[in-house]
Amino acid sequence: MKKLTILIVLITLFNNNLYSQVKWGLLAGTNLSNITMSQNNSSIFSETKSRVSFRIGICNDIPLSDAFSLNTGIVYSVKGYLTEIDYSLIGLPTLGKIEANTSFRYFDIPLDFSYKISDLLSISTGPYLGLFVGGKTTTNGDSQTIGADDLSTTDFGLSFGAKFSLTEVFSISTGYQLGITDISEGSEIYNKSILLAIEYTFNKY
Q1: 3: buried, middle or exposed (CB in 10 Å: 19+, 13-18, 0-12)?
Q2: CA angle 139, 45, 39 (to 5 degrees)
Q3: For residue 22, which of 142, 202, 183, 147 has the smallest C-alpha distance?
Q4: Could you tell me the pTM of the whole model?
Q5: β-strand pairing of 154-165 with 121-139
Q6: Residues in CB range of 4: below 8 A, 6 or more apart
Q7: pLDDT for 154-182, tens place per residue?
Q8: Beta carbons of 97 and 146 less than 8 angstroms apart
Q9: Rounded Cα gap, residues 133 and 84, in angstroms
Q10: Distance (Å, whole) CA 168 – CA 199
Q11: Is the CB of residue 60 less than 8 Å from the CB of residue 25?
């Protein structure tokens, strides 16, 4: 009984110490997003172009050692792409070419393992899970909603990044997300994004 009590006390102290070392913060920035298509079922679509949007969320840093840490959190992230629809290719020349703006909204949950190169610079890599919450395609001012019936509800991929500390509480992070699961459930479409954000940390250990 005494040994069990000592063990419980030690575990509690360890957890409290670990929690006190966790850094919490906020991030806000931009996505330069696009998609990769392994097959294009329609010849009226041109090659896709990158789309600029935003990302904002909560992040934390869990220390694993002096050099390694685990970075996670939850980030509201808008992805998507731009493309041009050429109706003349299907016998409708009067409609001409129309640009389509497609957006996908996700809650991203990253799980990055970070290595601190110096007090100012760290690099990271790891998987992420994106939870799809909606989207839309806009052409000539008209919008069409994209729902869970049109797109996979999850986006799984890998991320690679780096972070540079500006001050004790502010830092700049950049990275790249590469989707590895088909979000279209059949057409082989994969997300990809270049990330840039500024982060504010509430507590420093």
Answers
A1: exposed
A2: 130
A3: 202
A4: 0.82
A5: antiparallel
A6: none
A7: 999 999 999 999 998 999 999 999 999 99
A8: no
A9: 25
A10: 11
A11: yes
